[in-house]
Write a structure and sequence with these properties.
It contains 9 helices and 11 strands. It is of the alpha+beta class and 254 residues long. It has a domain at 3-8 and 135-209: 2-Layer Sandwich (Alpha-Beta Plaits), CATH 3.30.70. GO terms for molecular function: DNA binding.
Length: 254
């Protein structure tokens, strides 16, 4: 178990969701509906649904919207979404994994391929980059739940494998704790952590890179355009990457 003091968001810039609240709500709704359809429509009996509902609450999604997304699954009038994964390389050889929920594979594949090709990237075959990542469970808390020692201690007690903390530096970067666990123990560890730290902001399966690539200003600018373009697509749920961008470069990019 290691506690790292600084952690850069490897998915995409924090705050990007704030500008796209309605798009974010539609993505959260889609995940809730899929989760409810795959298991019980009761969050207490369905870990994936519970995680989806918690993620929606963390983004201040109204209760009515959450319930509507659950009801949609049980009424059977929802679209048939399937989970699809795309892998490719962004500018500077950065490895990216794109996870989507779609009711039209052709549309999503075309959109993802276009986003890569227009922003200095190449979409690869399945398995092209995922060998450079570990499939793990990720539990996220805001920095406000406590300092690094408190969270590290709680994580060890709960049976987590690793903790990465960024205590933030103000409103622009409020900070977060990322707690990594094995896929099999994700919901068990999350339940234990809830007893000491309260409800998590996110509980999900994640791709964690084995090695991170430092990205310079020129590459970072194009890379962020690619990540944002992918993130803007309604079908794309999450973009994972093995890049690390320094605070200095992020400030220059604004």
């Amino acid at each position: 178990m290691a506690g790292h003091s600084k952690f850069k968001n490897i998915m995409h810039r924090k705050g990007a969701q704030d500008k796209k609240r309605s798009a974010q709500f539609s993505k959260l709704s889609r995940e809730i509906t899929v989760a409810a359809k795959m298991g019980m429509p009761d969050p207490d009996m369905n870990p994936r649904l519970r995680a989806a509902v918690n993620a929606a609450k963390a983004q201040s999604m109204p209760k009515d919207n959450i319930q509507r997304a659950i009801d949609k699954a049980s009424k059977g009038d929802s679209e048939n979404y399937e989970e699809v994964r795309y892998e490719g390389y962004g500018p500077g050889g950065v490895a990216l994994i794109v996870e989507a929920l779609t009711d039209n594979r052709n549309r999503t594949a075309t959109n993802v391929r276009t986003a890569f090709s227009k922003n200095g990237g190449n979409l690869g075959a399945s398995g092209a980059v995922s060998h450079g990542f570990e499939r793990l469970g990720l539990i996220e808390y805001p920095a406000s739940v406590g300092d690094e020692d408190k969270v590290l201690e709680a994580a060890i007690e709960a049976g987590a494998d690793d903790v990465e903390s960024d205590m933030g530096d103000g409103d622009e970067n409020p900070g977060s704790h990322q707690i990594w666990v094995s896929v099999d123990s994700l919901h068990e560890v999350a339940a234990e952590l809830e007893k000491t730290l309260g409800e998590a902001e996110g509980v999900k399966l994640a791709w964690r890179p084995n090695l991170k690539v430092d990205v310079d200003e020129g590459t970072a600018s194009t890379l962020m355009k690619l990540v944002d373009t992918l993130d803007d697509d309604d079908d794309v749920q999450t973009v994972w990457g093995n890049y690390e961008i320094s605070d200095e470069v992020m400030e220059k990019l604004g």
